[in-house]
Each structure stands twice: as structure tokens, then as C-alpha cells.
Amino acid sequence: MPSSRIYNSSRASPFLITLLGLLVFLLPFAVLQDHSYITIDDNLEAEFAIPYLLVKQKVALDYDPTTVLPAVMDGLPRNAARSGLNVTVGLFEMLPPWAVYLVQQALVRLLALVAMYALLRRHWLREAHQKAVAAGVALCWALLPLYTMYGWSVPGQAGLLLAFLELRRGPARWWHWLLIGSFPLWSIFAFVGPFVLAALGLFVVYDWWQTRRLKARLVAGLLLLLGVYLVVEWPLFYSLLLAKQFVPHRLEFDMRRITPMGLIEGLRSAAQFFFVGQYHASRFLRIAVLLAVGVVMLRTPAGQRTKQLQRFGSWLLVLVGMALFSGFYPQLVAAVQTQVPAVGAFNFGRFHFLSPLIWFMVLALALRDLPVRWQVTVIGLQLLVGLGMNAEWLNNLRELAGRPRAQEPNYAAYVSAPLFEQVQQTIRQQTTLEPAQYRVACLGFPPAVAQLNDFYTLDSYQNNYPLSYKHKFRPLIAGELAKSPMLQAYFDAWGNRCFLFSAELGKDFRVGAFQQRVVQDFTFDPSTFRKLRGRYVLSAARLAQPAQSGLRSVGVFSRPDAYWRIYLYEVMNQ
What does DSSP say about strands 551-557 and 566-571: parallel, antiparallel, or unpaired? Predict the structure, then answer.
């Protein structure tokens, strides 16, 4: 049978085949369950614990300006955390934490597959013989490396674009409004909200310029998106813009101290944004798309290449412009911060969150003009790129094979619930205190681990918290910061990781038990710790001389199924 007949065979629906492919992709998560590997950096250590705590401490929908999240930073303002109307928070109401992640992973990718397939079939790959191509591209989209804790922030853009294209083309239907209205409920406003609104605003203006008529339904769609965002993100807008509930620590961001400067650095960063992307917004090599465009150009007769160049060139120029802007944006902020100190508080360089969808639009346009064998090659290459750069999937295959990476623990080993229960029991036996009655800080591992085990931590990884708390916390670690200019700039000029630092550990925030790290000289301010109501330090590294830090050793805890060995230290009274 010719390859074209196999490729376009009507015996099995291409969409159902890709749905099966997605299920195969998700199978390792289903088999491993809480022993699945889940991305740690900026994910388990940052995005995961707060929704859990909002639900656990029953403040998810409590937007009173005085409400705090007591388990974080001795009372993080509730309105500094994620909205309680976010779908992810709702999942924590129904499922244990590890199941929330796996269910969200499955839902995000399934809906991404459906949205992209519908977008392609209704607009760019509409012919009957293009079903398989559309299904293949949709599967590639659904399998991209993604931070699925961000919900629909990136993959849901396909559904949002579909809704606006449909509104532009004809009468409004109920599902158009559903797609638009649901996007803010399952996305992160700070990452994509302003940029999606800006892009769709330009789309509305472009349509008005082309037709000389402003379509009311497009304007209504834009207003609906903005209106739902205002409702969903009301705590954020209210606390920062209206009530001015607290001064965010982000106002002290100093890009001059943490940004590599110069033309070469800017071009290097821009090239990374263009050819690979940024990991929060899906990092994948753009080689398959560029190959498809290149083959189309080579196959196009010389007399028609100008038209093709205009078609692809305009979108590629947009992508180049976005990459240059994102690549040089930190340097632009650094240049003007002396005149406008607050300019770095919000990252306007996140337009790159729109780039994955644009790349897939270019891919679809190119595939239309390629023969079947090239379509199969390009889609196959994109699948390999997406899977090969998907660290979660690859690490789960290693888990199934019994050969996990030493530095990449699975969820159960990372959270180590039985281990931390032993720590709590020891404290309870010695003091009769429950976790809510004392505060801890963590050294050598993310405070989110302790938070997921229901400890109340003075430290945390937060994108937004009161500047006053940063100033209160700094004396606690001032001695270690003084030893390391790198850590000093890391905290003073950025500070999202409001952690206990050790100059000897540097930025190693994942000290596994197998490493057997020992900190010889830990400079620690016990008086500041006591003022912050701190009592215990949980350390993944052994302190050689705890008494010199004003601490006494209480116990050492380890388990064969835990990633950590925890050394428990109590602050000494003076």
C-alpha cells in the first residue's frame, strides 16, 4: 500500500490515533502514581505547596485584607497567593496533592490536543486529506514540555485563538464565550494575561483596519476576557492597586546586579529565546518548524518564492522581534532602573509566552505545502524533539526502568512524608507542641517540602511577598551573604528564594542524603530567628559546629525511601 494511503487511511480516525498516543504518553504517570517524577525547579519547590496550603488552611476564598496564610513566612498575606477561583486550587479541594498534579497534567494535555486539532481543522488544515496532518500537529502540541501547574497559560492559547477567529468569521456561539471565559480560570495572569490581552487587542484593531468595521462580538470577547480576569485575580489587583495592602518585595529587584550585560549577552539570550524558547513557556528546539519552512522555500518555484517569503517571513520577523525584546529586556530594565526603580517589579519581557503558538501556526502553514513524506518527517521530528526535551516523561521512563537519576527524586521520595512525620513526632514527644505552635526554617532543601508536610516555615519561594518581611528576614542570613557576593546579589537584588543560605552550599537547594554534605561554618543569627518566632532548623546538611550558630542538635532522621537525611536543630535560649 502506498505511504500516502497509509497516512490518510480512513480505517481509523487520525484524531483517535493521536488520542491513543497521548494516553501512551500519560501511562507512566498512571503506573507510577505518587512515585512519578514531577518537575522540581520552579514547580514543586514554588508553585505546588501554596494552592495546597490555601485549601488545607481554609483561606482559598477568604480575600479579607487581614487574612494571612499562617504556614508561610509567619503569615503571608493571603492576597499575595494564587486566586481561589483558579481551577488548580479547586482540584486540591478534591484530591491528594500528587493526584492533583497527575490529573491536571492529563486534563491540560487532553484539552490542548482537542483545542489545537479544532483550530487547525477549522482554519489552516481544513481539507479532508489534511485530517492526519492536523492530528499529528495537535499531538505535538499536547506533548510539549510544559509547566502544567500553570494550567492553560500556554496550551490553552490555541482554544482562545480559535474562539476569536470564529467570532471574527461568523455569528457568536455559546462555546466561543465558554473558551474565552474559562481561560482566566486556569491560567496565570502575571505570565500570560497582559500579553494575551495585548495580542488579541492588536487582532481586533487589525480586523477593524482590514474591514473598516469594528466587530462588536470581537470587542465583547476581549471585554469578557478582561472582565473574568478582573474577577478571578481580584485579590491581586485589590491588594496591590487599591488597598495597597503591602509593598511587594519585587520593588527592590535590581536587574543591574543580576543581569549579564553587553551586546553579546543580549544576542545570546535572544538566540536562545528564538531557537529553544524559555522553560516556563515550553522549551523545545524549533528545528522541525525551520526545516519545514526551509523545505517549502526550496520546493517553491523561483517566481513564487517572494509570495512564500512574505507569508512566512512576516511571522518569523514577529518571532525574531519577540526574541530580541525578551533577550534584551533585562538590560533595558537595568538601564532605566536608576530613574524608575519600580520598572523591574513586573516582567514585560514575557511576551515570549505567546511564541510557542506562533511557531505552531508557522508549522501548520508550512505543512500545507509539503508532500506526505515530508509531512511525516517533520511531524515525527517534532514529536522526537518534544518527547526528548520533556524531562518529566524521560525521568519517569527511568523510574519504570529502575534507573532514576540520583539528583531527580520522584514525588514520594522528594516529599518524604514518613520521614517528616518522624521529625514531627520527635518534636511532639519532647515538647508536646504541634506544628502550628512553632516555626521552622530549612537549609539545603526547599521550604515547600516542609510546607507539604504541614510545617510552618519562616522561609519560602514566593514570587510576591511583603518587602518588610524580606528586610526582617535578612539579618538571619546576613553572615552567610557576607561570605558570598553571589548569594548576596541573589537575595538582595532578587529575593524570590527567601531561604536560609550557606556560602558553602551555594545554590545547592537539593542536598540529597547520598551527598553527605557537611557545613563547617554556618553563620546564623539566633536572636533574629527567635524574634521571627523560629524554634527549629531542618537541615539536609550536617552542621559541624551547631553550637557556634546558637543551635543544638536534636536528632538525625533518614529512611531508605526518602531523598533527604534531615538534621534537626533547636535554637538555644539566651
Answer: antiparallel
| Nine cell digits for residue 507 | 545554590
Pairing of strands 518-519, 542-543: parallel
H helix runs in 484-558, sequence order: 485-492, 526-531
CB 188 within 8 A of CB 151: yes
Q: Which of 341, 189, 351 is nearest to 250 (CA)?
A: 341
Angle of CA points 249, 342, 475, to nearest 5°: 30
Residue 30, pLDDT score: 97
**Helices 391-401 & 14-32 angle (0-180, nearest 10):** 60
Helical packing angle, 287-299 and 372-388, nearest 10°:
160
Please give the Cα distance from 402 to 393 (Å, whole number): 14
pLDDT per residue as tens digits for the range 82-111: 999 999 999 999 999 999 999 999 999 999
- So what's the pLDDT on residue 154? 97
Give per-residue pLDDT as tens, 188-246: 999 999 999 999 999 999 999 999 999 999 999 999 999 999 999 988 888 777 778 89
Q: Which residue has the cell 477568604?
A: 62
Which class for 190: exposed (0-12), middle (13-18), buried (19 or more C-beta within 10 A)? middle
Question: Left (φ > 0), alpha (ψ -120 to 50) or beta: where does 72 sit?
Answer: beta
Q: Alpha-carbon distance 146 to 153, whole Å? A: 10
Q: Which of 46, 89, 84 is nearest to 64 (CA)?
A: 84
- Sequential DSSP letters for 23-64: HHHHHHHHHHGGGS---IIIIITTTSHHHHHHHHTT-TT---
> For 352-388, what is each residue's pLDDT tens digit?
999 999 999 999 999 999 999 999 999 999 999 999 9
> How far from 309 is each of 131, 355, 372, CA to CA, in Å?
26, 19, 22
- Span 521-542, average pLDDT: 97
Helix axes 287-299, 355-368, angle to 10 degrees: 30
Say which residues have a Cβ less than 8 Å from residue 473's Cβ, sequence separation at least 6: 73, 458, 459, 498, 532
Cell of 344: 523591574
Length of the chain: 574
Query: What cell was used for 82?
Result: 494564587
pLDDT band at 3 (very low <50, low <70, confident <90, very high): very low
Q: For residue 428, what is the enclosing H or E element? A: helix 417-431
